[in-house]
Amino acid sequence: MIFIYLFITFFQIGLFGFGGGYGMLSLIQTEVVHKHHWLTTSQFTDIVAISQMTPGPIGINSATYCGYTAVHNAGFGYAMSMLGSFTATFALVLPSFILMILISKMFLKYMKTHAVQSVFNGLRPAVVGLLGAATLLLMTPENFSLPSVNPWQFFISCGLFGATFYGTYFLKINPIRMTIYAAIAGLVLLY
């Protein structure tokens, strides 16, 4: 039964997840953590971190890991968990695949029309909002701690966040390098 729910959930996320993988993160977290309780917030945070480090789109990687973890947490073994990975990944990609086949010719024909341009003008702010929501949803005590619980970890985490933002946005440092720098700094300062 979990496979049907996985398919439906990730199909809906794939259908309504505008803005790419980062835009989907808040939808994925809402569904798998808060609605279905397949994963804990800590597990989801770990999945996002792993998804960012592995090659490929973050949305697809997150779906793959969420499908595996959800089925594993439900008490199934390795083979069934792999099927959960496949189900979630396939369901996430399927809507885009179907839509791209259906609209590719029409899009090229009507791309310059006012109606199509208006649709894209309406989607752009929504994508920015989804990306902002994904950022805010990851700012949890599991990632930053709390000043009252562990002030050292809280201030180091906030400092790393600020330094990473400044480095990538203003200094134009490659995000891969910034990820490596932050990992080293976290290892040195928080271990």
How would you describe what is shown here?
Helix content is 82%, strand content 0%. The radius of gyration is 19 Å and the shape is globular. The protein has 191 residues and is an all-alpha fold. The longest helix is centred in the middle third of the chain and has 33 residues, at 78-110. The model has no long low-confidence stretch (mean pLDDT 89). It is built from nine helices and no strands. Helix 1 runs antiparallel to helix 2.
Number-wise, the strands total: 0
Low-confidence stretches: none
Percent range of helical residues: over 70%
Instruction: Using the CA coordinates, give the radius of gyration.
Output: 19 Å
Series of H and E elements: HHHHHHHHH
Structure, briefly:
The chain is an all-alpha fold and 191 residues long. Helices cover 82% and strands 0% of the residues.
